[in-house]
Amino acid sequence: MKIDCQKYGVHFKDLNDYIRNSLEKRIDLENCIGQRYIGAAISGKEIYINGTPGNALGAYLNGGKITVYGNAQDATGDTMNDGEIIVHGSVGDALGYAMRGGEIYVKGDSGYRTGIHIKEYAEKKPVIVVGGVFGSFLGEYMAGGIIVILNLNNCEIVGNFIGTGMHGGKIFIRSEKPLKNLPGQVSCNVASKEDLEEIKRYICKFSSVFSINCDIILNTNFYVLKQNEKNPYKKLYAAN
Amino acid sequence: MLIEGQVRIPSGCAVSSIFSRSGKRFSGEDIITSIEVMHDRSNGLGGGFAGYGIYPEYKEFYALHIFYDNVSAKHECEEFLEKFFDIVNLSKIPTKKVKSITDEPLIWRYFVTPLKTKLADSQLEENEYVVKQVFRVNTNIKGAYIFSSGKNMGIFKAVGFPEEVGRFYKLDEYKGYFWTAHGRYPTNTPGWWGGAHPFGLLDYSIVHNGEISSYDANRRFIEMYGYKCTLLTDTEVITYMVDYLVRRQKLSLEETAAVIAAPFWMTIENMPESERKKHEYLRNRFSSLLITGPFSILLGFEGGIMALNDRLKLRSMVVGEKDDNVYIASEECAIRVIAPVLDKLWAPKGGQPVIFTKDRI
Fold first, then answer.
1. Per residue in B40-76, pLDDT tens?
2. Which tens digits make up the pLDDT trace of B93-132?
3. Where are the domains of chain A?
4. Beta carbons of B185 and B43 less than 8 angstroms apart
5. Is residue B275 part of a domain?
6. Structural domain A90-227, CATH architecture
7. Which of A6, A192, B15, B152 to pair with B108, CA 20 to 30 A apart?
8. Closest chain A C-alpha to B161 CA, distance in angstroms
């Protein structure tokens, strides 16, 4: 089913009611322009979006797939539980905020606070793969799951406060140069073969979705960031 | 009812702007379309616009836009203005009935120039003289409020959704090279027209999305220099801070940004020596003018715009560029709706000032 969002003609509430009540599995949105909460909490549908979806795209997404042919705005995949979000462009701030399951693939860059507060439990393991670079506070207070930064344009990694307060999960950053300004709560090492084995299928998925050669990415240097297990919270809040 | 100045209002909001670097003038229609897309970021309790280059036929004169509660306030204010200014033109600001916009005050516009003898007697610079009289009206004349006082620019604001405010003021009939817009989302408001954004002083105008937590520290400092914060809004104090730093202290815009959204000490430590010294000086010299808390602001001035986020980037802002035009807004959709194809779209970093000025022709 095709829905033309006609510039600003369709309000997000009507649009989302339409999507939720539709019996069709595949939904194509044309001329999307800022409508919020698209696909919120739904499962089992495939939504293809042309245009610029609004904030909180796929919030609480519980399954199915959302594909954006363009950029997405802030809080994409907020508290997402399952399913897939694929963005053929860049995203704004707070991508995958408090995500607890599912996978997000972004071809371009992500903004500030990517993957903050994400967590995992049993078989639930959220994954975020970003093709470009990210803003500050990547994985802040991360408690589980995996964030992969592919840095395909080989930029210098300059984000501040990466993994501040991290106490679970892993952040992989592709970079030839060592990372600077890391907070004391994270440990940073060159990713081993076993580490890379863990993310190989997500990178391959990224490659196939965006038609980028998988081997070129895999044969380069990644750093892996984990919580620093040596009293990580010493002096975070008080001089203890 | 309590109005601004008697109660403090935290607020959310939307901002947008269109700037033509070549100085080409265009109507206010596009900026209305842009801010309308972000309708849900406002709640109908305040909207406004600033247009630059809209009064070319009066560009040598200060354009005073004034709200009056009643006719007696108008008489009193006009009597005052006549004592200090030569009024070359005055008229009601044209408006159109819009169903949702009610309780409008009397809205008047005056093109003025300071009386030569009075200006000479005051021994003040012309700008300072005008600022002084604006403050005198706003603090001393009950029911009169000057909400715009620049040359060849004007602020238009009201209680309502921004797109309704734009239509109310018939902005499609004005032409400017630069427009900013604001949609307000106060969580609790007395709903007074003067409290809407943009906030202006001389040709500076500010639209702001955020909630600054350093308000009182900033206010205490700025009030020592003759500014009176009468509205208790963040935006008012930011406007005065910018006026103080740029016009009175003669800081550049980059330096001003380095004061109000200063880099962290840990970032300063890693700077090259000369940079580090400069930033240390600015942070120490103007420590009371550091703004903390979330904000994204668009500062308008004659011939240019500066956009700035707080250093933690707790509010969103994107910049789009297409040929000579620059678009800066809270959300990408507000840019795409008027310029679907862009040469460039990017998000500034926290504390990174984005400055565009008119090309010299």
1. 998 888 899 999 999 999 999 999 999 999 999 999 9
2. 999 999 999 999 999 999 999 999 999 999 999 999 999 9
3. 90-227
4. yes
5. no
6. 3 Solenoid (2.160)
7. B15
8. 15
Q: How far apart are the C-alpha atoms of B13 and B18, rounded to whole Å?
A: 17
Specify if B5 maps to a domain: no
Residues 259-298 (B) with a CB less than 8 A from some CB of A? 264, 266-267, 270
pLDDT digits (tens, 9 = 90+) for A187-228: 999 999 999 999 999 999 999 999 999 988 989 999 999 998
Query: In chain A, which stretches have pLDDT less than 70?
Result: 7-8, 231-240
B94 token code pair: 């044209």
CATH of the domain at B105: 3.60.20.10
HSE toward the beta carbon, residue A101, CA cutoff 13 A: 14
Range(s) of the domain holding residue B309: 14-260+292-357
Catalytic (active-site) positions of B: 13
Angle separating helix axes B253-260 and B273-285, nearest 10 degrees: 60
Average pLDDT (B238-256) is 95
Within a domain: B286: no
Q: What is the amino acid identity at position B175? A: K
Q: Angle at Cα A55 formed by Cα A53 and Cα A61, nearest 5°? A: 85
B146 vs B12, higher pLDDT? B146
Q: What pLDDT shows up at residue B9?
A: 52
* Nearest Cβ partner for A52 among B266, B332, B350: B332
Enter the tokens of residue B33: 């379309």
The total number of structural domains in chain B stands at 1
CB B334 to CB A160 under 8 A? Answer: no
